Amino acid sequence: MMRAAGLVLGLAASWACSGAAEAQLRPQIRPAALVQPAPEVSSDAPVAGSPPAVTSEEPRVGPETGLPLPRFVSLKTREGNARRGPGMDHRIDWVFVREDMPLLITAEYGHWRRVEDRDGHGGWVHYALLSGVRTVIVDAPLASLRSRPEERAPETALVEAGVVARLEICQRDWCRINARGHRGWTPKAAIWGVGADEILD
User: Fold this and answer.
1) Distance CA 164, CA 156 (A)
2) Which of 51, 60, 162, 178 is least buried, going by the fewest C-beta atoms within 10 A?
3) Pairing mode, if any, of strands 135-138 and 191-192?
């Protein structure tokens, strides 16, 4: 959906669904000049559904990959079945229907990974459906993208809740993301898909 001569970019967002049910959202990315004043998002604000911190001190590693658990990945396909157990003979409990959505791996078994989304829904997914490319989903009602990782830095865009963006860099409290070509820094507390203590260069 495009409005105002292309100044407002609408992104249809399909969430995970169980059975035939499928929730539909329509998050948007707007140039900051279109909406004033933009709400501030405190980096200290708690966010519902926040994942456990992914830190260098985390002792658990996956038995199949040797990579840390838990860890974030993204969905490689437009649809992914989450099963009750690690195998094709297990029933499908959940279906992810949004390509690039961030997921949290919590366990490994053979070629299967147990994953969950920001709301805790999920199950066992074949590893071929997952990607190491890091993405995040905007959790705040309206997140400001800024030119620098500072509260007073100029805004470059406003991003609505539900937008999926590519994760580029993360400092202690800020991350730089790219949402359909709109790049900027946003408080880590405004997004889901990165550990509270995680640093990415």
Assistant:
1) 17
2) 60
3) antiparallel
- Domain CATH code at residue 125: 2.30.30.40
Averaged pLDDT, groups of 10, the chain, 201 residues long: 29 40 45 41 38 53 96 97 97 96 98 97 97 97 96 96 97 96 96 96 90
Q: Within 10 A of 186 (CB to CB), how many other CB atoms are there?
A: 25
pLDDT in tens, 39-50: 333 334 333 344
Question: How far is 69 from 57, CA to CA, in rounded Å?
Answer: 11
**Domain limits for position 104:** 71-131
Contact of 139 with 192, CB cutoff 8 Å: yes
Measured CA to CA, the distance from residue 184 to residue 126 in angstroms comes to: 33
* 171 contacts: CB under 8 Å, gap ≥ 6: 149, 199
Q: How many CA atoms lie within 13 A of 124 on its CB side?
A: 16
Give the span between the Cα atoms of 127 and 155, in whole angstroms: 38
Q: Is residue 119 part of a domain?
A: yes
Sign of the dihedral through C-alpha 121, 183, 166, 197: negative
